[in-house]
Write a sequence for this structure.
C-alpha cells in the first residue's frame, strides 16, 4: 500500500538524482553523507519465515512476550562506508534526544569540515533546538520528501537488524533483548559484505 500523500514517481526520481549529486559533491570535499531515522523495537518476537525438512510440518513455535516494553534506537548509516552511529533509549524520540544524537554523529566524524544528513520530516527534526544544534555542529540536514521511507537508506539496516536479532527469536528478559541489539551494533563489522550488497544507492520507486 502506498501511503497517503506519497510523492509521485517524478518527484522521487528527481530527489534520487539530488541525493546522488550530493554524495558526489560531499566525497569531493571528504564530507560523509548519512541517512538517519529512529526505529522503535518492541520486546517481542518478529515472526518470519523459516526452513524445514521436506515432509515436516511447515511451522515453528516460538515463545512470545507481552510486547509492552520497547527500545528506541536512533541510527544513522554512512552511505559510502556503511559505518553506523546509534543512540538507544527507552524513552521517546524528541527534539532534545535528536540534538544529542547529532552530537554523537559529530563524535564519529570529528575532523570533517561538514556532515550531510538525509532524514525525514518528523516535527522534532524541524525544531529550533535541532536546527540550532545542527548549525553549531556544521551538520547539514537534508529532508526527504514526505512519506518516503523507500528513499531512506537506513530503513534497510532496520530490516537487516530484525532479520539477525529478532526474527523468530525469543528473549526472556528485556535486558537480554537490549543486549542482543547492542551486540549487533558492536559487532556489525562481521556483516560488512552483506551490508555492502544491501546498502546500494538503488531505490525502489513507489
Amino acid at each position: 500500500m502506498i501511503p497517503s500523500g506519497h510523492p509521485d514517481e517524478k518527484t522521487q526520481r528527481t530527489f534520487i538524482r539530488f541525493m546522488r549529486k550530493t554524495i558526489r559533491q560531499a566525497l569531493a570535499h571528504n564530507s560523509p553523507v548519512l541517512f538517519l531515522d529512529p526505529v522503535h523495537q518492541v520486546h517481542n518476537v518478529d515472526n518470519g519465515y523459516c526452513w524445514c525438512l521436506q515432509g515436516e510440518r511447515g511451522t515453528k513455535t516460538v515463545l512470545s512476550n507481552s510486547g509492552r516494553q520497547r527500545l528506541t534506537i536512533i541510527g544513522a548509516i554512512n552511505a559510502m562506508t556503511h559505518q553506523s552511529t546509534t543512540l538507544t533509549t527507552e524513552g521517546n524520540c524528541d527534539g532534545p534526544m535528536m540534538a544529542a544524537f547529532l552530537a554523537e554523529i559529530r563524535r564519529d566524524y570529528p575532523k570533517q569540515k561538514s556532515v550531510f544528513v538525509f532524514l525525514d520530516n518528523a516535527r522534532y527534526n524541524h525544531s529550533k533546538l535541532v536546527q540550532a544544534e545542527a548549525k553549531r555542529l556544521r551538520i547539514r540536514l537534508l529532508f526527504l520528501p514526505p512519506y518516503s521511507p523507500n528513499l531512506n537508506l537506513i530503513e534497510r539496516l532496520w530490516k537487516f537488524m530484525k532479520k539477525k536479532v529478532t526474527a523468530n527469536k525469543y528473549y526472556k528478559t528485556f535486558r537480554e533483548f537490549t543486549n542482543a541489539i547492542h551486540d549487533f551494533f558492536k559487532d556489525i563489522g562481521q556483516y560488512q559484505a552483506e551490508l555492502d550488497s544491501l546498502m546500494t544507492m538503488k531505490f525502489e520507486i513507489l
